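Box 4.2: Ligand-aware structure prediction
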Amino acid sequence: QEQQLSNGVRRRRRRVVLFSLPFQGHLNPTLKLAALLHAGGLAVTVLHTDFNAPDPARHHPELTFVPIHETPLPDAAVSPDSDILAKLLALNAACAAPFRDALASLLLCSGGHDDVACAVVDGQCYAAMRAAGELGVPVLALRTDSAAALRNMLAIPRLRDAGYCLLPIKEEKLDEPVPGLEPLRVRDLIRVDGCDAGELCSFVASVAGAVGAWVSGVVLNTFEAIEEPELAALRRELSLPAFAVGPLHMLFRRAPAPAEQGPHAPDRSCLAWLDARPPRSVLYVSLGSLACVGRGVFEEMAWGLAGSGVPFLWVVRPGFVTGAGASDGEEAPPPLPDGFEEEIKDRGKIVRWAPQREVLAHEAIGTFWTHCGWNSTLESVCEGVPMLVQPCFADQMVTARYVTHEWGVGMAVGEVVERGRVAQAVKKVMAGGDGAQMRERARHLKMQASDATSSAMDGLVQYIMSL
Ligand code: UDP
């Protein structure tokens, strides 16, 4: 790993170590950042868990992959039914010592601290931030959510003290604006159903503690044009440099994009199905890789889609419906409602996993019914596709508020998912004047996204070199 300088001197390249928690929505941006840092002249090692391990053969050949061999994960970390907070806590515990050991042996093998410029660590993995910091390695926290969501998260202890996060929140409070986090209302704040504000606060305290003690900068998969005030506020609040290097999936001018990491092989037959559809006629429905719904909501979604009369492509992944029954196993998708397939015939296409970015770029797609995961939202924005939003947990409520009210590129399915309302919302967004206006605004955001340059990435590389 040596570099030839213009004066002929050979010098060791500086190495960056990256580590992501093994969620689809964290791994993909991390691997893209890894490829971009490599293209920027840095040597890159990706430390990873055995669970959902990236396949080195499918990624950039010049990246080095090293497993940390985390301690065996309890059911809480892998069960599709468990909440996101339980997963985060279990993963932090399972990764703490193995990450530290893996990084320590890397420091020994690669010639010591001089070679490793910094560790870019998942901003939800306080255990890894702390371990790297304690080993004397400069740490950058990689956030795979928005700047608005990070501000909301860091404000949780203050919000709890002010009575905004204590569940159950009184109905009349839900539409109150949250001071300092406008345009968010109380109902838009980060929450995880089934866990109390105390648990959430102690997780946030661990993240904020690690950031405060060990982190030299924050890297976000967002861009200035879309979150300028939120980024400015975040920089003030953290007193740290914050690099808005997104949208990461768009920035491959110097390096080939790494292959997408997914829990299932994408079903590419949906692209041929889309080819046969008129432009902007199809609704794409996917709630990402983690969100689950109960059987009742699943049936309302299905019959709402059927009742709308609109052609649709729907990702129904194994585990998407909670309590689907042991006989379904992990790998079988949940059964569709009786009579549904006969009703929709060829008007609907159902897949276990879609090549989502290609789907969103397809001209047949008119609207994306999304849970507002940050990656899905950015992918939709970058293709100028308006959204129908059904946020499920964590930062998805925050993003949904920005999509519908701040950027004006989407509308809500409704607080209650009910077939009649679903059908109405789908028809409205696909055909109505509101839909056309959202599409126009989405086109504008798409242009701003494509103008996002690689200058923030250059700034990040320079900062890393200076550490
Ligand atoms: N995705 C995909 N195919 C699917 C569903 C999702 O490739 O059928 C990808 C999608 O493009 C996005 C990621 O999975 O990059 C989901 O990340 P997001 O942050 O939107 O949601 P999460 O899964 O973390 O809740």
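In the box above, the bound molecule is uridine-5'-diphosphate. The first strand starts at residue 2 and ends at 4.
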